[in-house]
Amino acid sequence: MQVKISKLNGKDLIKALELKYIFPEEECYVSNVINTYEEYKDKDYIHWIQCKKNTSVYWYTCGMITYGLDIDENKNNCWWIQRLMIIPEYRRKGIACQAIKIVLNNIPDNLNIYTSITENNIKSQKLFSKMGFIKTNRKWENEIIWQYKN
User: Fold this and answer.
1) CATH code of 91's domain
2) CA dist 118 to 35, 41, 100, Å?
3) How far apart are CA 129 and CA 121, in angstroms?
4) Could you read off the pLDDT of 40-85 as tens digits, one per residue?
């Protein structure tokens, strides 16, 4: 399956607000509507994840990923992957891995890349570990910060 990401536009906001987090069976999410809207109105961080079968000409929306430039605790520029959501019927097909790879390939090598994951979200921890992220000793609110090590 081929995967690409593209910036979310205003007409797509309603679809984005209806998505659930990548592993909804875990107690790892807050209100999608409020957080997605807050990020969208101020920043250009939200991207659709689109996929298509190799034999198809049509791209389908299969999820959403948010990422952007931020400042770490030492006031250095860094990148954060804030959210990764996949529509249920597209899960377990490698789409999340491909989307993360696309994001990592679009971020400059000279900056740190972080994500944060709750302690009980084992599936997301395994996913980001597989993609080269390492658990740190730091926390952001109730989430553990993971750093990409390339």
Assistant:
1) 3.40.630.30
2) 16, 25, 18
3) 12
4) 555 567 777 888 887 888 888 888 888 888 887 778 888 999 888 8
